[in-house]
Prior knowledge:
74% of the residues lie in helices and 0% in strands. It is an all-alpha fold and 358 residues long. The protein has three domains: 1-109; 159-240; 242-358, Serine Threonine Protein Phosphatase 5, Tetratricopeptide repeat, CATH 1.25.40.10. GO terms for molecular function: RNA binding. It comes from Glycine max (Soybean).
Amino acid sequence: MLLFYSPFPSCVGFESLEDASKLFDQMPLTNTVSFVTLAQGFSRSHQFHRALHLLLKEGYEVNQFVFTTLLKLLGMVSWTGMMACYAENYCHEDSLLLFCQMRVMGFRPNNFEVGKSVHGCALKACYDRDLYVGTVLLELLTKSGEIAETQQFFEEMPKDDLIPWSLMIARYAQSDKSREALELFCRMRQSSVVPNNSTFASVLQACASSVSLNLGKQIHSNVLKVGLDSNVFVSNALMDKNEVTWNTIIVGYVQLGDGEKALNLFSNMLGYDIHPTEVTYSSVLRASASLVALEPGRQIHSLTIKTMYNKDSVVANSLIDMYAKCGRIDDSRLAFDKMDKRDEVSWNAIICGGSKFI
């Protein structure tokens, strides 16, 4: 063995690959070192297919040393090619092992065809019900597969672990399928699976997209109970900074009769540089009216003038009502007179407001 092995690295080192290959074939016993040495030579000369063929031909077990060494040499393309070679030679279990080892080493293949190939191997090797293999495949599908196929795969896999649920909820939330994400979250809770910070962040994102204030509050309550409110991902999801979300919560507070919280949230909204809309202004003016808070109402009126929203009929009607309820009937009449177009709400607001002081 020593006689054959000693000159072998030097042959490869001097790029005498044909001589090295012949010498390798003549060796009565080969080992991992000689195999890796020859594979390195093939890799340096960009003959990746020969390295793959060598592995299949010699039937070496893909142990940690072999895997780590060749992974650095061949890169993702060749390793997915090696997986395909295993599959074509009916070595489905080896193909799965290689895929899982790639994951452990930090490689994250994102090609959908790779996912389908590995899924096929999992079925043929009877690993399709294995939780780890299923979770890895689901993650691959969520990143690059069709959502219908991803959903079908999820429904067929074991669901005792949190990760598959979180992956699927996140996929729905990122695809603007808020209803599906929220329904799946409810199913998960019914299955007694406990959510983590990633799950909460995804489902809160779905609440923001669907403008579901009540459900968002319930989930926020759960977040507080499990102590995840300080988590940065959950906090960002709770404060998804778009005008629809802010408006929804402000309107919700006003409808619940909590004008003070509505005004505080409006102040925070301005601090985040979110631009109010006519809905926002109308809601916070109603909040000021409910609190008989003249000063905040005046400040909001000033903002509507700067942004030209005072010309909007809905905002103007809220101004009339706010000033009337705060006892400033002259200001209420002035807002009424400045309206370009008055509707039934405008007349009712000024009449009701004025009647209180007759």
